[in-house]
Amino acid sequence: QWKQLENLYFREKKFAVEVHDPRRISVSRRTFGQSGLVVQTWYANTSLIKSIWVMAISQHQFYLDRKQSKAKIPSARSLDDIAMDLTEMGTPKVSKLVTLEAKNQLIMASNGSLISSGSQDSEVSDEQKKEKIMELKKKEKLLQEKLLQKVEELKKICLREAELTGKMPKEYPLNAGEEPPQVRRRVGTAFKLDDNLLPSEEDPALQDLESNFVIQQKLVEAAKKLASEPDLCKNVRKKRKQEYADAVKKLQEIENSINEYRIKCGKKPTQKSTLTLPGKQ
Question: Which part of the chain is the FERM domain (predicted)?
Fold first, then answer.
């Protein structure tokens, strides 16, 4: 019966009716501390579920209006009088259904309830409304944080492209009145390893060490180009010089490993890095 109704709500594909039943124990998460609450649930596609919910709200509101009308009637009326009242109530009821969701700020596209509709029998506390608003604000904050994260990622990608091409892409996100940053094109440090640069050795372990040496040698050359780039600020120049020094140190370590292995195998050591590298800057 309508007087037992606690709530009508839908969420996406779910439509539920909550009614009071003193013989049952509460299973609802929406009514804290109450007992005797029973939830009946149906599932269908979202548009159908929402339509059912709107019709159910309308039916319940009709029940409330009739209940209020009966309370104001001092004596029994004829069927003609009742029919006249129903005719007069029909037009505003239809318009109310049309504007139901527009007036209700708490009803989302995939979530609605009898509590949200502002029913006269609804006994929802302000705390529950505040909880709903806080939940929506929390979701909004998470979306804003995610959006800012994606914007920062886009900025980094655009800056990398500008360093390679020398031109800032138009997709770079700018705030109102903000000028795009000036980015200098990075000096070219790409290199290609020719097959004839790799020594041919019968020993696989020594072949691997020699290959690592050739690759590290190219990395040292690239680090040197970056460190020698003109018009660098002091901090960047210092950092690149340190990177160049570290690359040279690693190259020497690889050569030491090669020489140790060659001596172990009864071969003469080499001095590749000292012959091919210029002095440290």
Answer: 1-67
Model pLDDT for residues 95-141, shown as the tens digit of each residue: 554 455 444 444 444 556 665 555 444 445 677 788 889 989 999 99
Our count of domains for the chain comes to: 1
Write out the DSSP string of the chain: -GGGEEEEEEETTEEEEEEE-TTS----SSSTT--SEEEEEEE--HHHHHHHHHHHHHHHHHHHHHHHHHHH-SS---HHHHHHHHHHHHHHHHHHHHTHHHH-TT-BTTEEEHHHHT-TT----HHHHHHHHHHHHHHHHHHHHHHHHHHHHHHHHHHHHHHHHSS--TTS---TTPPPPP-PPPPP------GGGS---S-HHHHHHHHHHHHHHHHHHHHHHHHT-SS--HHHHHHHHHHHHHHHHHHHHHHHHHHHHHHHTT-----HHHHHSPPP-
User: Does residue 263 sit within a domain?
Assistant: yes
Contact 16, 9 (CB under 8 A): yes
Residue 276, in any domain of the structure: yes
Beta sheet of 5-11, edge-to-edge order = 37-43, 14-20, 5-11, 111-113
pLDDT in tens, 58-87: 988 888 888 888 777 665 666 776 666 666
Q: How confident is the model at residue 29 (pLDDT cuts 50, 70, 90)?
A: low
For residue 264, give its domain range. 189-280
> Higher confidence at residue 174 or residue 192?
174
Closest CA to 50 of 7, 107, 10: 10
